[in-house]
Amino acid sequence: MKKHLLFLAFSGLFLLSCSDDDTIVNPGPQDPDPVNYTSGSADFSTYVALGNSLTAGYSDAALFIDGQEASYPNMLAGSFAEAGGGAFTIPFMADNLGGATLGGTPILGNRLILDFSSGDPTPVPVSGQGTTEISNTLSGPFNNMGAPGSKSYHLLAPGYGNVAGVEAGLANPYYARFASGPTATILGDAAAQNATFFTLWIGSQDVLGYARSGGSGVDQTGNLDPSTYGSEDISDPNVVAGSIDAILQTMTANGAKGVLANIPDVTTVPFFTAVPHNPVPLDQATADLLNNAYAAYNGGLAQLQGLGVISAEEVARRTISFQAGESNAVVLIDEDLTDLTSFNPALINMRQATEEDLLVFTSQTIIGTLANPQDPTSINGVAVPLADEWVLTPEEQLAVQTATAAYNQAIAGLAQQYDLGLVDVNAYLTTVATTGITLSDGSTVTAEYATGGGFSLDGVHPSPRGYALLANQFIAVIEAKYGAELPEIDPLAYTGLYIN
């Protein structure tokens, strides 16, 4: 059923008699029949949301009050309130800056805004010092249990909200603000509220850290001990599945119903699509200079091909060539190339980027800068290859997509096993990235950085409008699964980009 009701005012001319003194009666505007919102077989009286930054309302590289209010769980709670839903509490940050301190020392940065002082809009942190102090713990319980940075297994980890462990990187600063105690778990604090309905969207961070680091971490598939993982590693799919299974066992133990969301293909978000592979402008003289500098490298590759060490295909992939124009590809390090340094130390694993490579959003801060301030020729991405952390190569993308597919297969199976609704966020955000979503006013929300309306300035997390569209995906699944009738969220009531 369509939820956006159009109230039509109309008037009619009614002939009351056929006499000469016939009168015209205007009944005035007529109210449509009211919509009877219902929860169906669900019970929204106590709703708890579990997840990471996507659940918390993280936006523009920070967590702040306006973003928390525009979180998809808070939007859902507003919709649920029309069908018997109860209060929804949020562990609000202290202000709208987003930064935070621990013992007075800044540990979290402020949210991003667009700065136009250079002529080109550039994302920069908003000025000022955030007043959120991590050690000032809040009294719960809180219905929004989203903690930015959480991987699937973190929701079960005792001490994940221990303030004393934050500085050492052993605890989560966001959860530390509202954990019920130093040994508490996110799952335990959520379960203590005896939820009648819950949403769970977890697992994206289990692969996102690897992707955002340009594949600098390790694919831990096959390693079932998450205590050995680094923050930039890909979690083993069995670890993710086992963690989600444990969460669902606990949350459904008292008969609560709920909805799961799967994991999007993170390589489609603006963080990986905003920076082109070929952003280097060169004049003819500089192009000639660079080609002369790389001649020895290219010649060394040809010699090793002649010796049968590498194939002609790899030589073609590794050969570096520049030309005058605006669109020269950057030079990068690729760990998956054949190691030739035993033959010649100068033949390092470098090549130029192609359309298949994804330069991470933060690479724009390094491309074109000097690796050595004393050497004006040491230009990063040109004379000095970009390090692995700045580029997600096709091989690294495959690792991300393989893990994502395995996570999503497990999530779909668990949704069926526990008889819960499943939101296909992966398919939905792929649509946003490919064709966009057309709204009622004719505008289209896309994944274009800063102008598309779907994502915030960090290039990873949705904008308020993007969160509203996602909330409607949850509502559609809840209605279909539980026979509920709920008001949709109007995405046009939320901004596509914070302007200050």
UniProtKB/TrEMBL annotation:
SUPFAM superfamilies: SGNH hydrolase. Gene3D superfamilies: SGNH hydrolase (3.40.50.1110). InterPro entries: SGNH_hydro_sf. Residues 1-20 form the signal peptide. One of its GO terms (molecular function) is hydrolase activity, acting on ester bonds. Keywords: Signal. This is G-D-S-L family lipolytic protein.
